Structure formats: structure tokens, C-alpha cells
TrEMBL record:
The keyword Membrane applies. The keyword Glycosyltransferase applies. It is found in: Membrane. One of its GO terms (biological process) is cell division. The chain crosses the membrane at residues 12-31, 59-79, 86-106, 166-188, 195-213, 219-236, 243-262, 335-356, 368-395, 401-422. Coiled coil: none annotated. It is a multi-pass membrane protein. This is Cell wall polymerase. It comes from Hymenobacter persicinus. Keywords: Cell membrane, Cell shape, Cell wall biogenesis/degradation, Glycosyltransferase, Membrane, Peptidoglycan synthesis, Transferase, Transmembrane, Transmembrane helix. One of its GO terms (cellular component) is plasma membrane.
């Protein structure tokens, strides 16, 4: 442990801290813009209202969340960095227990039972499951070697990764569950076979194509490709025919099984979102309204935007959830193409810095955790922006450090500053 606060201060990666602060400040400005109404001047920043009255506004509550996040940062960096490794599994067990009881004690909000209410404060355990799972899988991966392809190790790792999202899905919060797929990128860095990623990517492509193209065409095309491989290489045919037939059977099952999954497993609103993604004009006044208005807002910003607090789509509530899931459309409308480009570049800089910090760790635990941090941030960033411009289904995933919400802010703050706390002591770690 550093012998003095000054030495510890020098060890903190201040570039990451600066990026965090800039993004947090810009995020608050856009939450304020999304909450601002020209018809309600009393909601202004210096309105002289009472505390209870100010608590009606998201921009004011976000100030409080930012204040608590700063306190959280102090706690995270003061705690002995070894505690994150030592108590990773204890935290994971407590988190699993919380996810199990949440659907039974939470009241339904927007169709899901995933929010715990503590007086005036609402917290979403699924948000905190991300960094706790990242700690647990990093701790486990520090004790194994994925390059050895040990089936038992991979099975345990899969269990640690899949259990939280399954419990989150049980609370009817599918969007947050999807984020856990991001951990695959960290596993790939630590030696997981690229074949697994290729298989999963191929499966995703097949499922998407099964929704877009006639099934018989898809089956025929795949059969011709597989047959062509064997026609040009009889050795492959002779040695791998059983495997090829098994793959063919699995693909056929997926192609014809996608309809059953779509119609019997997905909920009506989830089916509608996928239909709108495939055909934006399918339900323009219903499920497609959010995305349509979001694209109008972003497009209307032009090159430099309409100006701070001048966005009409935002001010007149054309875009639902404009300070949370659709905060990016506020950026696009008021700050234009230049503003959205700045936001995207900030995320790229943050991701690049996190990966740099991850690669300089002297322990497998620290490096794996760093890649988990980068993967989760990237998934949120890509899916959130994708859904605001119609390239991804609307799944309720916030934009890190920009979207309004205490659970999200605390989760990303914790995710990031645990890494910085580990990094500050990296020279004292032993390579495991």
C-alpha cells in the first residue's frame, strides 16, 4: 500500500478520472436540457424553490446522485485493493441472493419487478450485478488457464456468467440481462477459443436471417455451402461427415425454431420491438414511436445543433424517456453532428484508456477485470446509440454517465473506480 496520500495520488490514472469528470458534466447538462421546459420557468436552475419542489426535476436529483457518486469514489479508492479480490465470491453470493428475492418483494414498474424502493430512492440490483459478476469471474479466471481448454473450468465460468442474467430475466428485465454477453470479449482476451465466438456470431446471424429471409431459401443456401465444402475437399467429407451432419441439423433446428421462440418465448412488447427494428413503418404510432421521434430529433440537429435548451423535440416531450434511455437524441438535437461526434470520441477515448490500464496490470485478476469494464461500457454505448438511431431494438439500456439515474451512475462509477483502485497498486501485485 502506498505510504502516503501523495504517493497514492500519483498512482491514480488521472487521465481516466478526467474523462469520467468531463463525461459526467456533459451528461448532467443534457439531463438538464431534457428536463427543462420553457413553459415552466419555475423549474429553472436558480428558481428559489424548496428542496421538496426541486426533487420533482430529474436534473436536480441527478445532482444528488453525482454528489453521492463522489463520496462512493472516495470509499472505493480508500478500501484496500486486495479486498476486491478476496471478497469477490462473497459479494457474488450476496448479489445472487438479492436477485432471487427482488421479483418477490419489488412492485411492478413498467412491466418488470427489478426495482427496490428504499423510501424516496429506487435502486436496480441488476445494475450492480455487472461489476460484482466482473469481480467474481476475474477472481475465478485468475486461478485457471483458459488456454488449456479445460471443460470443467469453462463450465464453471459459464455458470458464473449466466446465473445473474437468468435471474434478471426472471424479473422481466431482458435488456440488462443482455449486457452479460459482453464478458465474452474479456474471456477471449484471456485465451478462450475464438471458435466459441465464431459459433455464437454465426448463430446470431442465422437467427437474424431466419427473421428476414424465407426459411427454405436459408436452408438451401446453407446446404449448398456445406455441400460445396465437401465437394472440393473429399478428405473433409471422409473425416468430418458426422460433425458436418450434426452442424447441419442444429442449423436447421435453429432456422425453424426461431418462430417458436419468437411467438412463444418473447413477450408481446419484445416481439413488437424486433418487428419495428426489421420494418420501421410497422407500428409508427405505437412501439415505433420512440425510435421515429428519436431519429427526427437527431436529424433535426444538423451540423451544429439548435443550441442548448432549444431542442423542440426534447422540450415538447415528443421523445419518451428522453433523459434516460434516449438521452443521446437530446445531444443530437441541441448539439448536432459535432456534439454527437464529441460524445462518441469521448467514449472511444475512455474505452481506449481502460484497455491501456487493463493491459498494464501485473495480475490476471486486474487485467481480466479491466477488460470486463471495457466490455460492459462498450456494450452499453453501442446498444444505446444503436437503438436511438434504429440500428438496435429498444431494450432499456442507459448511456453510461449520460443517462439520468442513480443505479446506473453508481454502477458505472463503481465499475470504473474499482479498476483505478486496483491499478494504483499494480506495482505491488505478483503475476499469477
Amino acid at each position: 500500500m502506498p505510504s502516503s496520500p501523495a504517493r497514492y495520488s500519483r498512482s491514480i490514472d488521472w487521465v481516466t478520472v478526467l474523462l469520467y469528470a468531463v463525461m459526467l458534466g456533459l451528461g448532467w447538462l443534457n439531463v438538464y436540457a431534457a428536463s427543462y421546459s420553457p413553459d415552466a420557468p419555475a423549474g429553472g436552475l436558480f428558481s428559489g424553490q424548496s428542496f421538496a419542489e426541486l426533487m420533482q426535476y430529474n436534473w436536480f436529483k441527478q445532482i444528488l446522485w453525482i454528489g453521492t457518486a463522489l463520496v462512493l469514489i472516495v470509499v472505493l479508492v480508500v478500501v484496500d485493493y486486495k479486498a476486491y479480490d478476496t471478497f469477490a465470491f462473497v459479494l457474488y453470493g450476496a448479489m445472487i441472493a438479492l436477485l432471487i428475492v427482488t421479483p418477490f418483494i419489488a412492485r411492478p414498474i413498467a412491466g418488470s419487478r427489478s426495482w427496490l424502493e428504499l423510501g424516496p430512492v429506487r435502486l436496480q440490483p441488476a445494475e450492480f450485478a455487472k461489476f460484482i459478476t466482473a469481480l467474481a469471474v476475474s477472481r475465478y479466471m485468475a486461478s485457471i488457464n483458459l488456454r488449456h481448454q479445460n471443460f470443467r473450468d469453462q463450465l464453471v465460468l459459464a455458470g458464473l456468467t449466466l446465473l445473474p442474467p437468468l435471474l434478471i430475466i426472471a424479473a422481466n428485465e431482458t435488456g440488462q440481462a443482455l449486457v452479460f454477453a459482453a464478458f465474452l470479449l474479456a474471456y477471449f482476451r484471456e485465451g478462450m477459443s475464438p471458435l466459441i465466438l465464431i459459433i455464437l456470431a454465426a448463430a446470431a446471424v442465422i437467427l437474424i436471417l431466419a427473421l428476414l429471409v424465407p426459411k427454405l431459401w436459408l436452408v438451401g443456401a446453407f446446404t449448398l455451402i456445406l455441400g460445396g465444402v465437401f465437394a472440393f475437399n473429399t478428405k473433409v467429407l471422409r473425416h468430418h461427415l458426422p460433425l458436418a451432419l450434426s452442424v447441419w441439423a442444429v442449423v436447421i433446428g435453429m432456422v425453424f425454431g426461431v418462430d417458436f421462440f419468437f411467438n412463444n418465448v418473447l413477450q408481446p412488447h419484445q416481439r413488437k420491438r424486433i418487428e419495428v427494428l426489421i420494418n420501421p413503418s410497422a407500428d409508427p404510432l405505437g412501439v415505433g414511436w420512440n425510435v421515429t421521434q428519436s431519429k427526427i430529433a437527431i436529424g433535426s440537429g444538423g451540423l451544429v445543433g439548435k443550441g442548448f435548451l432549444q431542442g423542440t423535440q426534447t422540450k415538447f416531450d415528443f421523445v419518451p424517456e428522453q433523459s434516460t434511455d434516449f438521452i443521446f437524441c437530446t445531444v443530437g438535437e441541441e448539439w448536432g453532428w459535432l456534439g454527437t461526434t464529441v460524445v462518441i470520441l469521448l467514449f472511444m477515448a475512455l474505452l481506449g484508456r481502460v484497455l491501456y490500464v487493463a493491459e498494464r496490470q501485473k495480475s490476471v485478476f486486474g487485467r481480466t477485470y479491466g477488460y470486463c469494464v471495457a466490455s460492459v461500457i462498450f456494450f452499453h454505448f453501442a446498444i444505446n446509440i444503436g437503438m436511438t438511431i434504429g440500428l438496435a431494438p429498444v431494450v432499456g439500456i442507459p448511456l453510461p454517465l449520460f443517462s439520468y439515474g442513480g443505479s446506473s451512475l453508481w454502477s458505472f462509477t463503481t465499475l470504473l473506480f474499482i479498476l483505478l483502485a486496483i491499478d494504483a497498486y499494480r506495482k505491488q501485485d505478483l503475476v499469477r
